């Protein structure tokens, strides 16, 4: 596993520059969030790239132990302090998404949010919503795009539920339900989405819409295939359901074994078979015959870990099935609590607002992907796992 991870280009980039390696491709492809996702690209984000930060902060590793990828970094800030370098999600949502173009203060805010126990994605998405709502005149707020001098005070107030913070602590869905503005609340099922604008990769939109936790980027990671690797076309519905379906099962298995998800690309693409398959061929297969392409991939290293530790023989497909069982069980629990197709959706902004500063006009064509995804997952047309699906996975009803 270590051998695969060490030679994989994705893990090499994360090792050198952390998750902020995503910034430059994100600017070019147009997945960077700007002003509460009103826009999806801005050249000023280059100052937040992993490459720029490595230079500015003289970064070194500060990682989980033990780890072969080594994505975490710390660095020396201009005020003389050594801080953790914020992750990609944090710099996306606390940079351009709130109209802030100073990477230094994001490092300060990141530390404070970690100390307060605030999730930087949820807090960032909620603050950005409040800024836009104030601008539109639907909810008064001390927050405003580009105003950074009161952020720390409002974070403290949010953590302690004081003043305006008492409301901000509820998150963007509850606020938007109360004041109006659900169409621009960047959340799904109450969870604020990560810093990838799904108009730049429709599969990422499907992922946010169907993730069991809400708008979570760790449910599956199709943007990696659509943009970072360029294996499948981003502005298309083709093959997206098959990849979200596959990655969900694999990621759930990975999470069950408490292995870091950042190992997955190294594990999948570096064994001999996928490695020797010419990239253009892999690209064609992944786009047109995703199920066949999945047969070319190899995650036996992951299932082998389980065999080695437990002494029980676990095949690659047995491992994947365990992930699927976990995923479908979560979905079934959600549907028993009332979740249905109507909840598997995206904020209106991503479905209707095609014009941004990015050259390509795009909105996510969600419905056909949703139909295909339900079929593949064994759910009915309303998104409920069928009795046959549950029985096949050994989930008692
Ligand atoms: S375990 Fe994962 S998150 Fe932690 S440093 Fe390694 S790659 Fe990064």
What are the defining features of this structure?
Aldehyde Ferredoxin Oxidoreductase Protein, subunit A, domain 2, three-stranded antiparallel sheet, 397 residues, 2 domains, binds iron/sulfur cluster, Aldehyde Ferredoxin Oxidoreductase Protein, subunit A, domain 3, 5 strands, two-stranded antiparallel sheet, mainly alpha, 22 helices
Q: Your description of this structure?
A:
With 397 residues, the chain is mainly α. The chain has 2 domains: 1-195, Aldehyde Ferredoxin Oxidoreductase Protein, subunit A, domain 2 (Orthogonal Bundle), CATH 1.10.569.10; 198-397, Aldehyde Ferredoxin Oxidoreductase Protein, subunit A, domain 3 (Orthogonal Bundle), CATH 1.10.599. The chain is built from 22 helices and 5 strands. The strands form 2 sheets. The chain has a 3-stranded antiparallel beta sheet. Strands 4-5 form a two-stranded antiparallel ribbon. α6 (103-116) runs parallel beside α8, α7 (120-136) runs parallel beside α10 and α13 (240-256) crosses α19 (316-336). The protein binds iron/sulfur cluster.
Fold blueprint:
Layout lengths: L1 H6 L1 H9 L5 H7 L20 H8 L2 E2 L11 E4 L5 E3 L3 H7 L8 H14 L3 H17 L14 H10 L2 H6 L3 H8 L7 E2 L2 E2 L9 H9 L11 H7 L11 H17 L7 H6 L2 H5 L2 H10 L1 H7 L3 H11 L5 H21 L11 H5 L13 H12 L9 H6 L5
Antiparallel strand pairs: 1-2, 2-3, 4-5
Helix pairs in contact: 5-7, 6-8, 7-10, 11-13, 13-19, 13-21, 16-17, 18-19
């Amino acid at each position: 596993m270590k051998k695969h991870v060490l030679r994989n280009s994705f893990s090499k980039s994360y090792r050198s520059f952390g998750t902020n390696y995503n910034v430059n491709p994100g600017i070019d492809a147009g997945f960077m969030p700007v002003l509460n996702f009103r826009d999806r690209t801005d050249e000023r984000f280059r100052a937040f790239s992993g490459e720029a930060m490595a230079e500015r902060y003289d970064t070194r590793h500060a990682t989980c132990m033990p780890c072969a990828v080594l994505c975490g970094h710390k660095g020396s800030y201009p005020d003389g302090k050594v801080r953790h370098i914020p992750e990609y999600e944090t710099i996306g949502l606390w940079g351009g998404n709130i109209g802030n173009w100073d990477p230094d203060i994001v490092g300060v805010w990141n530390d404070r949010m970690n100390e307060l126990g605030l999730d930087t994605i949820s807090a960032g998405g909620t603050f950005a919503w409040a800024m836009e709502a104030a601008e539109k005149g639907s909810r008064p707020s001390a927050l405003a795009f580009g105003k950074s001098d009161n952020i720390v005070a409002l974070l403290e107030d949010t953590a302690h539920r004081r003043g305006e913070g008492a409301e901000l602590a509820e998150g963007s869905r509850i606020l938007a339900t109360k004041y109006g503005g659900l169409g621009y609340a960047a959340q799904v099922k109450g969870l604020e989405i990560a810093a990838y604008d799904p108009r730049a990769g429709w599969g990422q939109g499907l992922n946010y819409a169907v993730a069991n936790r809400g708008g979570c980027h760790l449910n599956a990671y199709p943007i990696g295939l659509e943009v970072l690797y360029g294996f499948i076309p981003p502005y298309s519905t083709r093959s997206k359901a098959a990849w979200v379906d596959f990655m969900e099962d694999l990621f759930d298995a990975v999470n069950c074994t408490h292995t870091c998800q950042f190992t997955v690309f190294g594990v999948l693409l570096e064994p001999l078979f996928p490695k020797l398959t010419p990239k253009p061929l892999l690209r064609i297969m992944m786009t047109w015959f995703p199920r066949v392409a999945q047969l070319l991939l190899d995650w036996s290293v992951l299932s082998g870990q389980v065999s080695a530790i437990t002494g029980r023989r676990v095949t690659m497909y047995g491992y994947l099935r365990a992930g699927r069982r976990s995923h479908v069980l979560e979905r079934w629990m959600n549907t028993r609590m009332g979740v249905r197709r109507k909840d598997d959706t995206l904020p209106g902004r991503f479905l209707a607002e095609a014009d941004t500063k990015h050259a390509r006009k795009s909105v996510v064509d969600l419905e056909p992907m949703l139909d295909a995804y339900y079929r593949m997952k064994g759910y009915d047309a309303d998104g409920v796992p069928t009795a046959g699906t549950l029985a096949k996975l050994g989930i008692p009803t």
